[in-house]
């Protein structure tokens, strides 16, 4: 991706970016320049590669990622509104992904038009040209997938804008767009090389493997539910809004078969595998090391790269005065209940939910349930600080092999009204890796349709949390609002320590350790302390207040000296409790009330009044998803100023629930 971004300046000249179409804000092809661009394979490749820079945005890793059962906002601004589905308060937002994807589409349209006119001087050069065409087709489909999954019916073009005397497109049926995307990807897999052929050196570009995976994803979306309305009457009639699949049941089944076959092609090729250690997937992303699990990733490099902020907004909190790590924003936190969704021994838990932040002196400070952040994009897993505090050079996963396995299981379950042996084995493979191949821990895999589908819904959360898939996954299953409503009730249960959360820890104690670059630590070790344990400490009124009054970020932590047995490792909380003759050493511990709102930089928080949690008074939970309404928020409204007003074809075509 460093190469991708470094050539953008050259492409600005080659593609005459000044002649942009306002409504798309994207580069327009110059007929004179295009002839010179496509005279050589190397120049053509630069144009193809240029599209990749636009396939991921800050919104996709931030505003559009949170607001699910995986993560939520810590801010009190437009991001907070978006996280809680209040789309009426986001003026000026919700347009960068839309605009960026159309830039990628324009690059691809230019290439798709011109590459077939090139002839290779040798068989290998012709194969390269064919592969470049395959990449362009896959990029275009991927970009449309990103637009349609959030905005539904949108303008569609497969022609470079320079060939159009005017372009004023109305919304085009998403089913039509999905079918174009499927066709593009089917053609792409015929043209692209397998990873093993060595023609593509990086997972930041499409191979046949990755194109098959994205084909499966697009086909599942095309076969799934979405918020729809009648496009034939403008302005749109709100009474026609409904959540439904496309009407052609035969086509739905065909799409499910396409998805299953695409996944099978990858699985049977046996080039992609799951890494033994789940944390290595994301450690590799932090140091730009490619592996056989991450099939497609967004890579970026340097201070002049597009500002997607991976590892900053969606990373772990870091004090701005740390000379080692700089500042980490952590403008979102993992949903407190996510941690408890993982089974005991599931190695994904402590990777997905980071239990620490980094202080100015580089100490790792343990986080509370609400303060725990997304753990997949960690600053301390990098080799260096990165280009700037907000541009960390951490790659973002766009497709992993575990996703292919889970899509395969899902498609087979849908096709056969229940899981086949192959579907069960695919899900089992993902679970086995999670539990380090300990089959005794993976539980029983359901064999009925509904139970297996629910297992897939849960497993996708555990495996793919905060990889910018969950919100649109819930929407394509038609359960977004119902599912998140139930999730909110689970937060109340956690607050009250009821039901499955009745026995969760209230207090934990840990020893501070220093954070380092390429940090081997996944989670800060801790010991559990009960109320009875706390009582033995004979806290002063001030100490008790600090530990149990949790409304401010300076409270909830208490430093104490414990006594560690050098032989057995047993920890004694007071000197008087040490057995006679025991060989102990003093150790400094921090006691943490897990129901506080603390992290190194927690902007939002909980209003709490007692040690039992935040049941007495909790505006944070009460306001969770306050703007969420069924048959409304499953599709985003179009930004009026930056999308509708500059495209006459969209006049009167706002989402009918936001008119």
From TrEMBL:
Region forming the signal peptide: 1-18
Top-level lineage group: Bacteria
Domain SusD-like N-terminal: from-to ranges: 22-220
Keyword Signal: yes
Gene3D superfamilies cross-referenced by the UniProt entry: 1.25.40.390
Keyword Transmembrane tagged: no
One cellular component (GO) term of this entry: cell outer membrane
Primary location group: membrane
Keywords, alphabetical: Cell outer membrane, Membrane, Signal
Boundaries of every RagB/SusD domain copy: 367-494
Subcellular location: Cell outer membrane
Chain coiled-coil ranges: none
Assigned protein family: Belongs to the SusD family.
Listed name of the protein: RagB/SusD family nutrient uptake outer membrane protein
Source lineage: Bacteria, Pseudomonadati, Bacteroidota, Bacteroidia, Bacteroidales
């Amino acid at each position: 991706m460093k190469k991708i971004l470094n050539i953008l300046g050259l492409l600005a000249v080659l593609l005459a970016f000044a002649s942009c179409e306002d409504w798309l804000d994207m580069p327009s092809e110059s007929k004179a320049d295009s002839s010179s661009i496509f005279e050589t394979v190397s120049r053509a490749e630069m144009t193809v590669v240029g599209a990749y820079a636009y396939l991921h945005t800050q919104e996709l890793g931030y505003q559009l990622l949170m607001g699910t059962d995986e993560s939520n906002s810590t801010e009190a601004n437009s991001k907070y509104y978006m996280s809680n589905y209040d789309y009426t308060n986001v003026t000026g937002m919700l347009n960068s992904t839309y605009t960026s994807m159309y830039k990628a589409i324009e690059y691809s349209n230019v290439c798709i038009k011109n590459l077939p006119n090139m002839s290779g001087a040798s068989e290998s050069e012709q194969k390269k040209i064919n592969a470049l065409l395959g990449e362009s087709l896959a990029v275009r489909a991927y970009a449309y997938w990103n637009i349609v999954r959030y905005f539904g019916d949108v303008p569609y073009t497969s022609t470079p804008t320079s060939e159009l005397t005017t372009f004023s497109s109305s919304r085009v049926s998403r089913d039509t767009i999905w079918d174009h995307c499927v066709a593009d990807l089917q053609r792409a897999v015929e043209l692209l090389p397998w990873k093993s052929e060595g023609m593509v050196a990086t997972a930041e570009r499409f191979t046949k493997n990755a194109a098959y995976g994205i084909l499966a994803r697009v086909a599942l979306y095309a076969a799934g539910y979405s918020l729809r309305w009648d496009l034939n009457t403008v302005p749109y009639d709100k009474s026609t809004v409904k959540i439904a699949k496309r009407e052609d049941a035969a086509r739905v089944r065909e799409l499910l078969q396409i998805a299953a076959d695409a996944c099978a092609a990858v699985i049977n090729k046996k080039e992609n595998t799951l890494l033994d250690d789940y944390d290595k997937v994301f450690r590799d992303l932090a140091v730009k090391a490619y592996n056989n699990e991450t099939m497609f990733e967004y890579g970026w490099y340097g201070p002049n790269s597009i500002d997607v902020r991976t590892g900053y907004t969606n990373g772990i909190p870091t004090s701005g005065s740390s000379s080692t790590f700089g500042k980490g924003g952590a403008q979102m936190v993992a949903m407190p209940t996510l941690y408890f969704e993982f089974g005991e021994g599931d190695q994904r838990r402590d990777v997905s939910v980071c239990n620490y932040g980094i202080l100015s002196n580089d100490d790792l400070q343990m986080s509370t349930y609400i303060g725990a952040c997304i753990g997949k994009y960690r600053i301390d897993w990098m080799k260096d600080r990165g280009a700037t505090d907000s541009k960390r050079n951490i790659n973002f996963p766009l497709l992993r092999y575990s996703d292919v396995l889970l899509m395969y299981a899902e498609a087979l379950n849908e096709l056969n009204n229940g899981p086949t042996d192959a579907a069960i084995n695919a899900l089992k493979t993902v679970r086995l890796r999670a539990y380090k191949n300990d089959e005794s821990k993976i539980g029983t895999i359901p064999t009925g349709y509904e139970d297996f589908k629910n297992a897939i819904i849960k497993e996708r959360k555990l495996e793919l949390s905060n990889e910018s898939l969950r919100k649109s996954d819930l929407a394509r299953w038609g359960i977004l609002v119902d599912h998140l409503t139930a999730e909110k009730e689970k937060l109340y249960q956690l607050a009250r320590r009821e039901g499955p959360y009745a026995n969760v820890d209230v207090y934990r104690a840990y020893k501070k350790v220093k954070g380092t670059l390429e940090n081997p630590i996944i989670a800060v070790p801790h010991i559990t302390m009960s109320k009875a344990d706390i009582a033995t400490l004979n806290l002063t009124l001030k100490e008790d207040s600090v530990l149990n009054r949790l409304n401010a970020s300076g409270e909830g932590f208490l430093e104490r000296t414990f006594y560690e047995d050098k032989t057995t490792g047993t920890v004694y909380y007071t000197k008087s409790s040490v057995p006679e003759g025991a060989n102990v050493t003093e150790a400094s511990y921090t006691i943490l009330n897990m129901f506080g709102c603390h992290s190194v930089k927690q902007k939002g928080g909980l209003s709490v009044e007692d040690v039992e949690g935040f049941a007495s008074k909790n505006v944070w939970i009460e306001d969770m998803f306050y703007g969420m309404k069924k048959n409304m928020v499953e599709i985003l409204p179009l930004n009026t100023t930056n999308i509708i007003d500059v495209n006459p074809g969209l006049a009167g075509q706002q989402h009918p629930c936001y008119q």
